[in-house]
Amino acid sequence: MSTEDKTMTKETGAPQLTAKDLASDQDVRWCPGCGDYSILAQVQRSLPSLGYKKEDLAFVSGIGCSSRFPYYMNTYGFHGIHGRALAIASGLKAAHPNLSVWVATGDGDCLSIGGNHFIHAARKNFDLNVMMFDNQIYGLTKGQYSPTSLYGQKTKSTPLGSIDHPFNPLLVALGAEASFVARSMDRDMKHLASTVVRAAEHHGFSFIDILQNCNIFNDGAFFLYTEKETKPDNTVFIEHGKPLVFGKDNNKGIKLDGFRPKVVSLEDYSVNDLLVHDEKSKELAFILAHMTDMPGYPMPLGVFLDIERPVLEDDMKKQIDKAIEKSGRGDLNSLFREGNTWEITGN
């Protein structure tokens, strides 16, 4: 596509990017069939619609299969060390608040060694977009169990079955006060693309738990939710202001029985009896996130929470501007040389 053929962005009048523009010249090297390919493709297809220039974007990663992501984006990128992606991304956002900063991380990288950085970046509400590739396994290091591996799951490091209780990533994010929390999956490309756009549009800490198939070490972990035959009866897509309806024939729904969700048949109940999703409600977000762990319930997918609260780098800028207004811009050299000094002489 020539420059003349591209759509012009509203903000600048410059040519709108395409997915090809955001693809780097690096060969994409994940295992054939890996769900990471889909995530990469949806990010490259989605972001141009928001009018970004390449220099507006930065992708940061830690260590893991997901962490190769910055190599494949023709944008600013930083490949960090294990678990430290959010610390790096937070510093980058604080120094360059106009950048759209994205973090590509895995369930191991984010919730094990990186767990402390994750909860504090969320509670501070840095304007970061975190995509967690959740395959319930350590893929790069060849199949050990991860913080999201299921109880009893047999892996290279738990041949008799894991006896750890897994994290529910959504509850971790909600408990840490993330202001945008969502879940999507690699095999529903349309839903994933729209969720990426929603995260990008949110001003504050955005977290997407992306169910991603590792076809080498944990193949089929999410097939119940992704395959055509089983998906309708085992997933419920939550949308703000809409009742929770699911099933092959849209013949089931979720209603609240006190604070507990209940699966009901629409032969016995009306759509008007069903729970209507409110993505501004923290309480409802927790209820729906808990539903993930309840046997016999469909997997909720969509935006669980999207609220506004103070963003750290915005407040930081206000403080800096106030200090400059009061005391002037200052001089670092003068700061180093002021106050008590002494001279050391050797004999």
In short:
Helices cover 29% and strands 18% of the residues. The protein has helices spanning 19-22, 36-46, 85-95, 107-111, 115-124, 169-175, 189-201, 223-226, 231-234, 282-291, 312-327, 332-337; strands spanning 57-61, 76-79, 100-106, 128-134, 180-185, 206-211, 235-238, 245-246, 252-257, 260-265, 299-306.
3D structure, described in words:
With 347 residues, the protein is an alpha/beta fold. Helices cover 29% and strands 18% of the residues. The protein contains 12 helices and 11 strands. It has an 8-stranded mixed beta sheet with strand order 2-1-3-4-6-5-11-7, with helices on both faces. A hairpin with a 5-residue loop joins β8 and β9. It is globular and about 90 Å long.
Topology:
Blueprint: H1 19-22, H2 36-46, E1 57-61, E2 76-79, H3 85-95, E3 100-106, H4 107-111, H5 115-124, E4 128-134, H6 169-175, E5 180-185, H7 189-201, E6 206-211, H8 223-226, H9 231-234, E7 235-238, E8 245-246, E9 252-257, E10 260-265, H10 282-291, E11 299-306, H11 312-327, H12 332-337
Helix pairs in contact: 2-7
